[in-house]
Specification:
Length: about 130
Amino acid sequence: MKLLCFSLAGAAFLASIGAAAAQDAAAGEKVFAKCKICHQIGEGAKNMVGPVLNGVVGRHSGIYPGYHYTDANKNSGITWDEANLKEYLRDPKAKVPGTKMVFPGLKSDDDIANVIAYLKQFGPDGKKI
């Protein structure tokens, strides 16, 4: 009986961790409205003040064609996985000192997770995966 109680408690704990880390792409699209001032994503996206974000998850920093990156971004050695994006979206200048991104960052963990979920939907060609 004790083993069953511990197992159920452990399962509930793990489920709560999963719920806290859940990502909502639809909510992320709404948060991405803040990013649209400088970035485009999707089919037909073009570089603006910031680079196109198609296929950004898994991409190396500073390589999107036709965009003029700072040396800080080009030489950062960062691959935009979820962990790096989380840090960057929270505080871009702390993650990449010398970046020209002026956005101060997102403070909500949920907003960050949701934006990442939204970004993950788009492949390098701008089509939803």
